[in-house]
Amino acid sequence: MARDCFGWPVALSYAFRNRFIHDGEGLPPDIFKGPAAVATFCVSDNGWDWITRKVKEQYHVIESQTRAPEVWPWPKDDLRDVLDICHREMDDLLAVLVAAACATLEAQVKYLLSPS
Q: What is the mean pLDDT of residues 70-87?
């Protein structure tokens, strides 16, 4: 369920994170259209193609695996807008997971404390 509803934004955010934290921005292809200050977070076509291909191949998700109301492709003129969508979707996923955990705990407590 989580992958079907949230797989794309979670994997996309994770791939960008890994690119900047582990791989290093200086490796080809450049993610931005130029030096960060000049590009103002505008993702290059090569960078966008690379990251979406990586998400599909490495995390085995597709663009339709999201509940985001924004139509794909999401705007690549500012990576911060893309990450805002991803993080909003991750917040929704975490809310679902916490609610499910609480409901499971409640059911277990009721079961354990109910008279036999």
A: 93
